Amino acid sequence: MSPKRWVLLVALVVVVAALSFSGVAAQVTAAARTLAAAAGPAGPLVFAAAYVLATLLAVPGGPLTILAGVLFGPVLGSATALGAATVGATAAFALGRRLGRDRVEALLERRMGRLQRLDRWMTGRGFAAILLLRLVPVVPFNMLNYIAGLSGVRTRDYVPATAVGIIPGTVAYAALGGTVHDPTSPAFVAAVALFVALVAVTVLLRRRFVPAVAPVAPTTDERSDARVSGGGPSVPR
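User: That's the sequence. What structure does it adopt?
Assistant: Structure tokens below.
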């Protein structure tokens, strides 16, 4: 993980801790869950629709996943974010396949000079390649959605690999948002521990598997221009 990403991660932890122990998070969570309860069963569906649209527009999904936990709690929040992220990623995959390379590059506002190498690597490994790239985010989530659509990866491999690969990170973020209002609770401590553990495991996996994926990883300029911050547990961002 680059120094910049470590700084962002530490900043996130500091902000979450400050909001939790100041009582602000408790007030915000109470207000948010009142609104969510007022919306009834439609609440998660409306949120999921907004999440899908955000994924199509390559909007970072990390904050939305945390918000899902705040609004609906760790369990329903995780389920809502997982379902929406999978649908959104699948829609972006199909859209990328339909738009073609030039339009995808314009949408993502970056060039993908190593696409042919990435295409061969993903096409040859299918499910395993997508699962690895979701668990070890060498390529940012939103970028991978569209790149995979331009590759020879089959939909039947892409969808289940994405659905499985984003589970750890999505649950960690939603659990963090769902328990941030009570920083002294065992649930919050467990959520923080899960998040830290996933970051550590991700770093270790990157060191082990990146050499195999490195030839198709984004360039330095592509990473610096990315709209999402990678390096942590894989979650739509």
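The longest helix spans residues 62-99.
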